[in-house]
Design brief:
single chain, 394 residues, alpha+beta, Aminopeptidase, 13-stranded mixed β-sheet, 13 helices, 26% strand, BcerS-like
């Protein structure tokens, strides 16, 4: 049957793009449906502040009138400036086990990126490393924790068949946050002297002051992660957008700020695993999704350490150890007794050693891929832009 890849060109196309995973994953018990309303907002160029420094095109692969795959191609100018590179990115990749369709999707993304002067294609990133990224290469037997994805076993081979190669793996570590004897004793010794020796205090984030707290988090995040592979700094607008998104699920028991004489020196943002709730909502808040949310949120039994960082000049003080200690304190007063930390780059030896010291174990591995473009090949003419703005509200 004839295969065709077309840009998203209408509100109906955008709905097809968003809902394709429901068909692909209909028999996959470990897949957690995202909230459809959240995906619409995220893909809307007027609502997602990423579009202040990025541009993207969305593609759908059609076979005999049936959608069989999707992909985005995007250029992040902030990433390119910060990393001094000419990367192009791809994301939101979903596809049937169909090498022809996958190759056609990657070809469409490549041509769009080459026409914009990119020298390679890296991903998947939705839209950055700060968002969901990578495909599973280990850990398919587990349900994904919040803000991570689940992808089929055939995806790595399907992507490689389209000419992409491994660029980087990221790790998710499982931690039991009860039973302190699992943790190397040196971590507790270091944590105990953070305030007495260095005068650093660590306190919970204040939800009622969420915007100021997120500003403090941003101050740490953009410095502590700046040397990471693929890192793109968050803008103030993006952080405020994240604050509004995370506020409903933020628990003051699990988010901390470290301060020294009024200066923010570290921050840790951990969130309860609301995927345990979203799994039963099938992507919808109405008519009954809100009821599932209310009934199941008190049964959440694990957390995700989304980000834990310390400014470089304070990393010798043991602030990270103090954050770990406070997580154990929180586990004693909440239903959550376990969690996952990540993503952590496979090349980040210090963080991975710290996870080993905490008694952790790697339970899932995600892979990002890349394809370098042939500098001698001429890019084809860019495909026509869609009839409506990409990501237009519906």
């Amino acid at each position: 049957m004839a295969l065709e890849v077309r840009p998203v060109a209408s509100k109906r196309d955008l709905t097809t793009f968003i809902k394709l995973p429901w068909r692909l994953y209909r028999n996959e018990p470990n897949w957690v449906p995202p909230l459809i309303s959240d995906r619409r907002r995220f893909l809307d160029r007027r609502k997602n502040p990423w579009f202040e420094h990025g541009e993207a095109q969305y593609f759908i692969a059609w076979r005999d009138g049936q959608p069989v795959g999707r992909i985005t191609a995007q250029v992040d100018r902030l990433l390119n400036e910060f990393q001094d590179n000419r990367w192009g990115l791809f994301g939101f990749f979903e596809c049937e086990d169909d090498p022809e369709a996958a190759a056609a999707l990657f070809d469409a993304a490549e041509q769009w990126l080459r026409a914009r002067g990119r020298d390679r294609m890296v991903g998947p990133m939705d839209f950055t490393m700060n968002d969901e990224c990578g495909v599973l290469v280990e850990g398919w037997e587990l349900e994904p924790i919040i803000l991570t994805n689940w992808t089929p076993r055939y995806y790595p081979g399907l992507i490689e068949s389209a000419g992409l190669e491994k660029a980087m793996d990221t790790l998710m570590w499982h931690l039991e946050i009860s039973g302190r004897d699992r943790v190397h004793p040196s971590i507790w010794r270091v944590a105990d002297r953070v305030e007495s020796k260095y005068g650093i205090t660590v306190r919970p984030m204040r939800k009622k002051d969420i915007h100021a707290e997120i500003d403090r988090f941003l101050e740490v995040y953009n410095e502590a992660w700046e040397r990471n592979w693929g890192f793109s700094p968050l803008t103030e607008t993006e952080v405020r957008h994240y604050a509004q998104t995370l506020k409903p699920i933020l628990d003051e028991n699990w988010a901390f700020v470290a301060e020294k004489d009024g200066e923010t020196v570290g921050a840790a943002l951990t969130v309860p695993d609301y995927n345990q709730v979203f799994k039963h909502m099938n992507g919808r808040i109405l008519p009954f999704g809100w009821l599932q949310f209310l009934l199941r949120r008190k049964k959440i039994d694990r957390v995700r350490v989304f980000a834990l960082g310390v400014k470089r000049e304070w990393q010798h003080t043991g602030v990270a150890a103090r954050f770990y200690e406070l997580h154990f304190d929180s586990a004693e007063v909440t239903p959550q007794k376990q969690g996952e930390m990540g993503w952590i780059l496979e090349t980040n030896k210090s963080m991975n050693r710290a996870m080993e010291g905490m008694g952790g174990r790697v339970v899932r591995r995600y892979r990002l891929f890349e394809k370098l473009f042939d500098p001698d090949a001429e890019p084809s003419s860019p495909r026509p832009e869609p009839a409506v703005a990409v990501g237009e509200s519906t």
